[in-house]
């Protein structure tokens, strides 16, 4: 419970510090902040994917903690970390981001993909500690949600 409270407080502090800057410029600082956010996501999703693939032994308590952390993290509004022009086509950001300009295209469904990710993570958080089979089934949905966005909106290389 203590970890959850700390996570909520940290998320609240993050959004209060950077939340008002929704009209942020596309800068290397913004990209660094965006990458830091995804490092937090990875630090919680990585062990879960390890359990999914059998590379890490399933541990109900750890799985639940990682899933709960991932759920909290997924609820942070990260729109301010994606100002238009903060993509890999921006010469000032070369080598710093794999975000594709398609994120900001008129026909972009990046918001829907983000919603699918949040929903998959919420379902995972409901089952992660209930046994390996339940966790694996939900982790596959999380993986599919990640992959759907990455395939369309993230370049393979910097």
Notes on the protein architecture:
- This protein is mainly α.
- 62% of the residues lie in helices and 0% in strands.
- The protein contains 5 helices and no strands.
- It has helices at 2-18, 28-53, 60-74, 110-127, 132-153.
- Helix 2 packs antiparallel against helix 3 and helix 3 (60-74) runs antiparallel to helix 4.
- The longest helix has 26 residues, at 28-53.
- It is elongated and about 45 Å long.
- The termini are far apart.
- Mean pLDDT is 88; it is low at 4-23.
Quickly list its features.
single chain, 5 helices, 62% helix, elongated
Structure classification: mainly alpha
Q: Outline, from the CA principal axes? A: elongated
Which segments are poorly predicted (pLDDT under 50) over 5 or more consecutive residues? Answer: 4-23
The amount of helix comes to 55-70%
What is the strand tally?
0
Query: From the structure provided, what is the oligomeric state, counting identical versus distinct chains?
Result: single chain
Number of helices: 5
Could you report the average pLDDT, rounded to the nearest whole number? 88
- Write down the secondary-structure element order: HHHHH
Characterize the largest beta sheet: strand count, sense, and whether it forms a barrel: none
Distance between the termini: 38 Å
Instruction: Report Rg.
Output: 16 Å
Approximately how much beta-strand content do the residues carry? under 5%
């Amino acid at each position: 419970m203590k970890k959850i409270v700390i996570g909520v407080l940290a998320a609240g502090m993050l959004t209060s510090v950077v939340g008002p800057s929704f009209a942020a410029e596309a800068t290397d600082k913004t990209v660094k902040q965006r990458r830091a956010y995804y490092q937090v996501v990875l630090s919680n999703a990585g062990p879960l994917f390890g359990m999914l693939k059998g590379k890490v032994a399933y541990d109900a308590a750890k799985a639940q903690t990682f899933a709960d952390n991932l759920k909290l993290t997924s609820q942070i509004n990260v729109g301010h970390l994606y100002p238009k022009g903060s993509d890999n086509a921006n010469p000032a950001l070369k080598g710093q981001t794999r975000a594709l300009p398609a994120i900001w295209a008129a026909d972009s469904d990046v918001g829907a993909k983000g919603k699918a990710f949040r929903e998959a993570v919420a379902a995972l958080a409901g089952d992660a500690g209930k046994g390996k089979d339940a966790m694996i089934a939900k982790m596959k949905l999380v993986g599919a949600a990640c992959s759907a966005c990455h395939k369309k909106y993230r370049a393979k290389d910097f």
